[in-house]
Amino acid sequence: MRLTAEQFLDRPPKSLQPLYVIYGADPLGALEACDSLRELAKQQGYVEREVFTAEPGFDWSRLASAGSALSLFATQRLIELRVPTGKPGKEGSAAIENYCKRLPDDTLTLVSLPDMDWQGKQTKWFVALEAAATVIEAQPVDRETLPRWLAGRLKRANLSASNEALDFLADRVEGNLLAAKQEIEKLTLLYPPGEVSLAMMEDSIANVSRYSTTTLVAAIHEGDASRIAKMLDGLKAEGEPPLLILWMLAGELRLLLRILGVTRAGRQPFPSKAREIEKLARKHTAGSLVRLNLHAALIDRMIKGVNHNDVWDALLQFCCGLAGARLPIHMPQN
């Protein structure tokens, strides 16, 4: 049987199979699936636990011995085999194949692996695991599937959100599922069960710090250069990564490029934000947006250390350019 990590977490099995394999490109999903399986095992009487980590030099005979040994207290056991590299080697491959042929009684075995590429899935030991185990894959969550992933997480917390609110949250946490989990946990503390509106979502995320990229974007739409400078100073003081700020700003730039017909890529603006974006677009031409796009690429090079100019000065210039506003007087206009 094959399941995704989300399927396993959403519908935990009532009875456990003797062998589980958990792997995948999403470390958070794999970790949560392992934790959930351990908890289910504990609830169903698997009170003994042995953990083997197949690091270089690991004695694979220990796995065979554990499989053939009787429980010390005649109770059910959980045996965990962790293969951090996903490459057990010749001896380990044979040990895993033999273990799959003779699964021990009264024992639940969990094999945890990293993400496996196509070649790794064709190995004899992995094929043997697949044939004998319930395989749980923690699949990657890309931007397209992230709102659905968030909706599932909210549902588990007895919360729901509109598509607009889910898209807002997805834009804020894309590429960082741990941050997404933390934001949802925060929502459960702030609001009672039920629907979380877009406004509630914005308030929750804006409260992460005194200054946020969300309020910076709002200042850009207002064309307030002094407030933009203040926001950037605050974000810098709080240690906000310049790359995250640039990522948020680049999202606004892509919307403007789409509206002016420079590109067809990117998403449509949220209906509630469309008027703001269109108003900002009237301050620009296709040429000014192309220049801003080049400026964004330059800032990206600064962040990566290729260009050693001041990243924060460059971000201020970019923000003011995006806002269609003049730089504050204290800031030299290069």
List keywords for this structure.
334 residues, alpha/beta, 6-stranded parallel β-sheet, two-stranded parallel ribbon, 16 helices, 8 strands, 55% helix, elongated
Would you give an account of this structure?
The chain is of the alpha/beta class and 334 residues long. It is built from 16 helices and eight strands. Helix 3 links the parallel strand 3 and strand 4. Helix 13 (242-259) packs parallel to helix 16 (311-323) and helix 15 (286-303) runs antiparallel to helix 16. The longest helix has 18 residues, at 242-259. It starts with a strand and ends in an 11-residue tail after the last helix.
Number of helices: 16
Radius of gyration: 26 Å
How do the SSEs run, as a string of H and E?
Answer: EHEHEHEHEHHEHEHHEHHHHHHH
Q: If you average the pLDDT, what whole number results?
A: 87
Major beta sheet summary: 6 strands, parallel
Structural class: alpha/beta
Ends apart, CA distance between termini: 62 Å
Quaternary state of this entry equals single chain
Helix content: 55-70%
* Anisotropy-based shape: elongated
Which stretches of 5+ consecutive residues score pLDDT under 50? none
Total beta strands: 8
How are the strands ordered across the major sheet? 1-6-2-5-4-3
Strand content: 5-15%
Could you give a quick summary of the protein structure above?
This protein is α/β, with parallel strands linked by helices and 334 residues long. It has 16 helices and eight strands. The strands form two sheets. A six-stranded parallel sheet has the order 1-6-2-5-4-3, with helices on both faces.
